[in-house]
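Predicting holo structure, iron/sulfur cluster bound.
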Amino acid sequence: MNFTFWVTDNCNLSCRYCYVDRLSDRSDSMTVETAEAAIKYTVSHFEKYKNANDSLMIGFHGGEPLLRFDLIRYIVAQYEKIAQAKGFHITYTLTTNGTLIDPDVTTFLNQHKVAVTISIDGTPETHDLQRPFKNGKNSHELVIKNVIAMLDHDPYLRIRMTLTPDTIDKLHEDIMYLLDRGCKVIVPALDYYDPDWTENNMNVMEGQLKKVIQQTRDREDLLIAMLNEDFRPKDKCTVGINTLHISPAGDLYPCVLAVGDRSFLIGDIYQGIDQANRDLIINMSDKENDICLGCRLYGSCEGVRCKIVNKIYTGDYCKPCGTQCAVENIKWAIKKSALAASVLHT
Ligand code: SF4
Ligand code: SF4
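Done. Tokens:
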């Protein structure tokens, strides 16, 4: 079961595509009292719903969560005591912009085997265009230095890249830049909010990804998300039971994209889950997308499984956003061409 603590909505960067300013429900930083109540809630939720062999995964997100390193340290210390007392297996994740990783932070992350994701968009040119500090200064130099240092401890450090129409023509160069510096696990993700995605951008993206495939065909140690789709049928959505996000104020949201949007609020750490709201979301998730029926990708497509994403981007739970649909088809085309190329090489 995954519980993610949004320890702060604040950040030291001012990314062009930042989602935090869009949140209707901003609540600054989590207090120690809220964290304590949240820990108590997660333990009771876990004990109520867990299956045999379930483990507890505690995530830290924001804003920039390392602005509250003090609170993260406190929360982990509490969970360590709980793990000892109750025999729980607990793992930790952290999603960070990579600007605040100092030796103290590194020691802590290693000590607690925290699985870290760092956001970096590629070369200095791409990254600095999109992810400046709040004061306008460039952040790339610092972030890549910290990425390289973290790779020493975790060769499978997860890199998150945000793709925008402005930088899509550099995607191949950006991915190769990160691979050249030792990154092995890269998760590119589009900024679906950007209104400037066009069919031409999509064609450019497909061409750029195919160039990456050509150059990495022999690298079995790499995991580049858009190139490794398995197209297996997706599991049923279990948000609100197996996944919960806790806002700085202690409100409960079903998944990462929903946090701060009160139309997706499904409870709080004091009253627990609001079953009616949670059921509404789960019931939506079971509905068919009429406009997608007959599509060859229906079973594996995120636009079918994740109704919250649809609602956010199109206003309709059962209508996927056009850009996401295009991306699903590009991933399919890439998979087919990669398979064809591997047949030719055998
Ligand atoms: S690092 Fe994340 S929270 Fe901070 S400005 Fe960028 S997108 Fe927003
Ligand atoms: S969103 Fe597009 S790719 Fe996905 S099922 Fe619907 S039509 Fe198919």
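Residues 307 and 317 are 5 Å apart (CA to CA).
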